Amino acid sequence: MRIAIVSSGRLWLCDLARELSLRGHRVRFYSLVPPWRTRQFGLPGECNHWLGPSLASLAAAVRAWSRTSLAERAQHWLARAVDRGAARAVEDCDVLIGASHMCLHTIEAVRARCGARIILERGSRHILSQRDILDGLPRARSGEPRVPDWAVRRELAEYALADRIVVPSKHAEESFIEHGVPARKLFRNPYGVDLRMFPPTPAPAAAAMPTVLMAGWWSLRKGCDLLVEAWRAMRTPGVRLLHVGDVHDCPLPSYPHFEHHERVHQSRLTRWYAQAHVMALASREEGLALVQVQGLASGLHLAATERTGAEDLQEFLDDPQAVAIAPVDDAAAFAATLDTQLQRARSRTGLRDLLGGARTQLTWQAYGLRYDTMLRHG
Q1: Same domain, 81 and 203
Q2: Residues 315 and 296 sit within 8 Å (Cβ to Cβ)
């Protein structure tokens, strides 16, 4: 098939482009990511159509303004610019795959020109559900919404035009059904991970400090305030909470046994995973957090909320108890989940491998195969 993929950045769509190309399709990836960059991720140069030459200055401005009062307006400008640029650039194709709120005009142009099948990629919950959740966060109660009206309008229009909507997790799929999208229009496909970076790790020594690790943005959306409250309420004494990643809109705690370390390249995360017993993710809303797969591959037990995609990962595992799931915004329940997982993790010795046979199902190759089957058979 002739497949056009539209995105502002690399996201997971560059990996999708590579996998569909490897499976024999004629793929073109339209984005702001230059060819030298996508080649680093295995995408052949002929598959890349760089929109950057005409939009590079705008993309740079968006990065510069990301933490200013102009951030929302800049994101709107960028989404419209990428969409209109792709609408002009996309060649005739059989399938158009577009990142949500980035491809409304492209959908209309391509469908009118060549009647392509339209597939929309949505990495999180239905945008109305996402808006309700994020507007309830402490910082959002000042009255300024976290999900802007322009994004809602664009996404709802794209949902209506798409032939299929692809989501990464069950909780995201359920949110679309709750908002009236027919189940037959949805395709759930958990993301892959480059597991070569995340081999099994030896269990920490018996005398090692019990350690809970959180990797990723330290933010309210990821429930870091809830995580700290739950950590402080754990029954297990002397637990270290280790964070690796950027700090966003949630203050770092100053309690003993808390450690923060700046973001590192994925290839260096395994060093931190080897020190921990449990990976924790208390997100209030997240499509499918890939650090969870990284942690499981490295041998960490997982404690997560029901809006992280953990339930989908649990379905792949030989030992479902490697994953424990707590309700969202329930610190007491999350504390109990952390204690349970820590007890399980500390009983392990030797090399830790919690993915087992699931390793082959959580790769980008497996992700691409599931996607390819959907394209070929509907």
Answers
A1: no
A2: no
Whole-structure pTM over 0.90, yes or no? yes
Residues 94-116: tens digit of each pLDDT: 999 999 999 999 999 999 999 99
Residue matched to tokens 């429930």: 223
Q: What is the CATH number of the domain that holds 101?
A: 3.40.50.2000
- Number of helices (H), then strands (E), belonging to the chain: the values are 14, 15
49-to-44, 46, 368, 375 alpha-carbon distances in Å: 11, 8, 20, 22
State which residues form the domain around 93: 2-192+363-377
State whether 80 and 141 are in the same domain.
yes
- Specify the residue for token string 């309830």: 136
d(CA 81, CA 89): 12
Q: How confident is the model at residue 378 (pLDDT cuts 50, 70, 90)?
A: confident
Q: Are residues 50 and 147 in the same domain?
A: yes
How many CB atoms are closer than 10 A to CB 124? 21
